[in-house]
Design goal:
The chain is mainly alpha-helical and about 190 residues long. It folds into two domains: about 40 residues, no CATH class; about 120 residues. It contains eight helices and no strands. Helix 3 packs antiparallel against helix 5. It starts with 5 loop residues before the first helix and ends in a 15-residue tail after the last helix.
């Protein structure tokens, strides 16, 4: 079985989404020269990608919660330095200093929000522990993790994303597939007659 990415097929879709339209678009895309098929991922790679997606969603949720908390406290005159660690260190002292001006029900709600932020951080750490276990079981991930500057998240994401590494002719082709290298353009010389 061979797979195509949706971005290769999309230019050939004409009309509304139906099975016949999609089938025609796939057939046309396969006919093009230089079509690059996507490597099929193993169950372990799919599981690793799922963990990365869950962690990404948790990170977005944590950022939304911390930004909302900062905004709400800013309305009462409290400001914080950048970073979640700084916010979580200073939040209790800030809530105590605002006790006279901050209604008790608001203070209680903000403390609950702080607990949610901490719980999300713990969930992210649990996912990172699972990724660490995956790294310990996969020799390809371990090889990539040995590269200076490559950590747990990069090593596990790289192997999980690529599928079958033999689908790429070179490291540059893999980087281009990820979108890490600039597109190559052919210089056209103008001939003056």
């Amino acid at each position: 079985m061979r797979r195509l990415t949706a971005r290769i097929v999309r230019p050939f879709v004409s009309g509304n989404k139906t099975d016949a339209t999609d089938g025609r678009a796939i057939w046309l895309a396969v006919q093009q020269p230089g079509v690059k098929f996507v490597g099929v991922k193993s169950a372990a790679q799919q599981a690793t990608l799922t963990l990365h997606r869950q962690r990404e969603l948790l990170m977005k949720m944590r950022n939304m919660q911390t930004n909302a908390l900062r905004r709400l406290l800013y309305e009462f005159g409290a400001t914080f330095a950048k970073g979640n660690k700084t916010l979580l260190k200073e939040i209790e002292a800030t809530l105590e200093s605002l006790a006279a001006t901050l209604p008790q029900m608001v203070a209680d709600s903000l403390r609950e929000q702080v607990l949610r932020i901490k719980a999300i951080g713990e969930d992210m750490q649990a996912i990172e522990k699972r990724l660490q276990l995956q790294l310990g079981q996969d020799p390809q991930m371990q090889r990539i993790a040995q590269i200076p500057g490559v950590g747990l998240l990069t090593a596990t994401a790289a192997i999980a994303t690529m599928g079958d590494a033999s689908a790429f002719k070179s490291g540059r082709e893999f980087c281009a597939w990820l979108g890490l290298v600039p597109k190559q353009t052919v210089a056209v010389k103008e001939v003056v007659a």
